[in-house]
């Protein structure tokens, strides 16, 4: 990512009106580092506690005894913080605007009072299905209001939700139901998206064949489309909701009781269940939502993510609702019915803060400015991006064409693991640089380390791996069922630090630029994908002997999926087989894991000990094979010539 000389300081008006200006940022940041306990004690008051906390931070990053606790002796309920506490002041205010996939279908405005009733009803239905405190519930729903009711209903009764993105396959769903030993799966008949429809219930049926017989399935009617029904296992939400009570007292949960599990890809093995707990997560989601987006009472906030990702958890549901905002849930895609949809929705609902991913910006940029210009975007005040580094061209287009040069862009860097933003410019405080995540959020101490010596790089400019020196309340606490893997993944390579898996540059002004993953995680359209997952899907195919998967630069998606495949002896490398493997991976994992390029590899470059040299495969996929580095340790250096000769990415 190139650094540009031009910076974009906040307007005088923005600096004067924002929650945080430059001087306040400096003072608050210094205070947050000097005395984290005092700082986070004060911020702890953002949420309503049933039992006030007396402890603030209790953290140890020592390998073998890693523990992360915040506000541990307090009790609270996340759903009460998102709903009940707003009822008196804003019971009739819209909490959620639901914008359906089809623009002809009416949007729904759900008030805080209605949200309360719907959440309580869903909570009572779950209780009747036998769900109690600490149980897991898997949510496999489209972007419909019931997804938010389901999350909040779980939180209300102390159940732990685990959302599985509706684009994931039955196999991926089954793995997550089994991994979390869920009691109930909540799904819908069909999921409309982009004018097409996914048979979600059919997927759930297939997944449940591989799950314990005791798992129940609660089915929401979205389209009324056909489904099959298993009596005794399947329950009709729309029928049950009629008779359900609209009262359900929120459970008093310990601050460190899990709020949710969210599976995400890592550099090795199968996806891991990231665990977030209640107190610290709520404080951090609420604070980052308010400060990063300069959210003010009465604003309409739109995050275009899906609730299946962490961005949807923190910035569609928990953060905005904790702050009493009006939050938009959009069921559709940016290009349906055409490329003006995002902007039409902004105009229709008078959106004040708009938060999306670089991949969407690049795709829309390619469709031309007219789609933007025909909408009235004067309500927009702050724009945001998340998920991957944004290239300066896309940043400039977002700034000029969408924001009309008036709206600061917050380039928020964070992860499923971090619960909320760790680095971002603040709208009223920082002179933005296109492509830079700029500054740490309060309490965040980024350090740049030399990758092999783990030595901390001081001064500016420097480049290395990005670690965080201390904890913050929104940090993940463990990997579900595998605390050892948690310690090993995040605290073993660079002892004493949380290792992010990202590389970064700190420029001469001390501003941060994320350079991308340094591990075997690739970022496809802002979605995390472990190369190991795609490899294991490929080798599960009868005709595949071996596979290696790497990322390569892709104009729209950021990174594309490049697969090197060695076939079983006697198998013909045909285009039909390519297509078959592509579809195979789509069914094994989901469409987001579709290979972009599949190269037939008679052999893979391996060391004499049999380790695949991915560095070489990455270079070939990037079409940058002039500097392959040292290949002398390869067992058979000649395979490299064949791979270069037959590369797909020319
Ligand atoms: C929130 C989310 C995390 C990974 C992260 C990094 C990349 C996210 C970014 C960014 C550059 C940004 N990433 N935001 N890279 N600039 N503003 O995306 O979580 O799905 O867990 O992905 O995404 O590589 O490590 P998650």
Automatic annotation (TrEMBL):
Pfam families, per the entry: ACAS_N (PF16177), AMP-binding (PF00501), AMP-binding_C (PF13193)
PANTHER family: ACETYL-COENZYME A SYNTHETASE (PTHR24095), ACETYL-COENZYME A SYNTHETASE 1 (PTHR24095:SF14)
Post-translational modification: Acetylated. Deacetylation by the SIR2-homolog deacetylase activates the enzyme.
CC terms in the record's Gene Ontology section: cytosol
Binding site residues for Mg(2+): 539, 541, 544
Family statement drawn from the similarity comment of this UniProt entry: Belongs to the ATP-dependent AMP-binding enzyme family.
InterPro entries with a match to the protein in the record: Ac_CoA_lig, ACAS_N, AMP-bd_C, AMP-bd_C_sf, AMP-binding_CS, AMP-dep_synth/lig_dom, ANL_N_sf
EC number(s) recorded for this UniProt protein: 6.2.1.1
Name of this protein: Acetyl-coenzyme A synthetase
Binding locations of ATP: 387-389, 411-416, 502, 517, 528
Molecular function GO terms recorded: acetate-CoA ligase activity; AMP binding; ATP binding; metal ion binding
């Amino acid at each position: 990512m190139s650094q540009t000389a031009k910076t974009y300081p906040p307007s005088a008006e923005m600096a004067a009106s924002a929650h945080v200006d430059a001087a306040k940022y400096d003072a608050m940041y210094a205070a947050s580092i000097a005395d984290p306990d005092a700082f986070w004690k004060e911020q702890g008051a953002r949420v309503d506690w049933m039992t006030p906390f007396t402890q603030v931070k209790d953290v140890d990053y020592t390998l073998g005894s890693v523990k992360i606790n915040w506000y541990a002796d307090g009790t609270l309920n996340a759903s009460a913080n998102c709903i009940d506490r707003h009822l008196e002041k804003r019971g009739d205010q819209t909490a959620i605007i639901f914008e359906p996939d089809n623009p002809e279908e009416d949007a729904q405005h759900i008030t805080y009072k209605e949200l309360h009733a719907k959440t309580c009803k869903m909570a009572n239905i779950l209780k009747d299905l036998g769900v109690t405190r600490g149980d897991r519930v898997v949510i496999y729903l489209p972007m419909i209001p019931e997804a938010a009711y389901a999350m909040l209903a779980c939180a209300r009764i102390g159940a732990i939700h685990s959302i599985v993105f509706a684009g994931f396959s039955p196999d991926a769903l089954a793995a997550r139901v089994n991994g979390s030993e869920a009691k109930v799966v909540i799904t819908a008949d069909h999921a409309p998206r982009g004018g097409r429809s996914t048979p979600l219930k059919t997927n759930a049926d297939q997944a449940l064949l591989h799950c314990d017989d005791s798992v129940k399935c609660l089915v929401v009617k979205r389209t009324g489309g056909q489904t099959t029904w298993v009596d005794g296992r399947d329950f009709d939400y729309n029928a049950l909701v009629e008779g359900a009570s609209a009262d359900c007292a929120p459970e008093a949960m310990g601050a460190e009781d899990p709020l949710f599990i969210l599976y995400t890809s890592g550099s090795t093995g199968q996806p891991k269940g990231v665990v977030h707990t209640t107190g610290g997560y709520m404080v951090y989601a609420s604070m980052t939502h308010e400060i990063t987006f300069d959210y003010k009472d009465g604003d309409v906030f739109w995050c275009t993510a899906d609730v299946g990702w962490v961005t949807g958890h923190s910035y569609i549901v928990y953060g905005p609702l904790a702050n009493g905002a009006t939050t938009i849930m959009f069921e559709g895609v940016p290009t349906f019915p055409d490329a003006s949809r995002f902007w039409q929705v902004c105009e229709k609902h008078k959106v004040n803060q708009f938060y999306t991913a670089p991949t969407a910006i690049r795709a829309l940029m390619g469709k031309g400015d007219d789609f933007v210009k025909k909408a009235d975007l004067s309500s927009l005040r702050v724009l945001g991006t998340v998920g991957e580094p944004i290239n300066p061209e896309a940043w400039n287009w977002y700034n000029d064409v969408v924001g009309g040069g008036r709206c600061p862009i917050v380039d928020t860097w964070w992860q499923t693991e971090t619960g909320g933003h760790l680095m971002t410019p603040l709208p009223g405080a920082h002179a933005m640089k296109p492509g830079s995540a700029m500054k740490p959020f309060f309490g965040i101490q980024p350090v740049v380390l030399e990758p092999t010596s783990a030595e901390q790089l001081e001064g500016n400019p420097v480049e290395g791996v990005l670690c965080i020196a201390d904890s913050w309340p929104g940090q993940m606490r463990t990997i579900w069922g595998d605390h050892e893997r948690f310690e090993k993944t995040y605290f073993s390579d660079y002892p004493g630090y949380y290792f992010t898996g990202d590389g970064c540059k700190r420029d001469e002004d001390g501003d941060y630029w994320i350079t991308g993953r340094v591990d075997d995680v690739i970022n496809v359209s802002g979605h995390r994908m472990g190369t190991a997952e795609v490899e294991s899907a490929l080798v599960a195919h009868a005709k595949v002997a071996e596979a290696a998967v790497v990322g390569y630069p892709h104009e729209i998606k950021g990174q594309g999926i490049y697969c090197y495949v060695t076939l079983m002896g006697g198998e013909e490398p045909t285009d039909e087989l390519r297509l078959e493997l592509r579809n195979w991976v789509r069914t094994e994992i989901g469409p987001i894991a579709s290979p972009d390029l599949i190269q037939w590899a008679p052999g893979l470059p391996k060391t004499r000990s049999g380790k695949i040299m991915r560095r070489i495969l990455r270079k070939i996929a990037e079409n940058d094979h002039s500097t392959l580095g040292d290949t002398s340790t390869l067992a058979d250096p000649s395979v490299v010539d064949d791979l270069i000769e037959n590369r797909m990415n020319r």
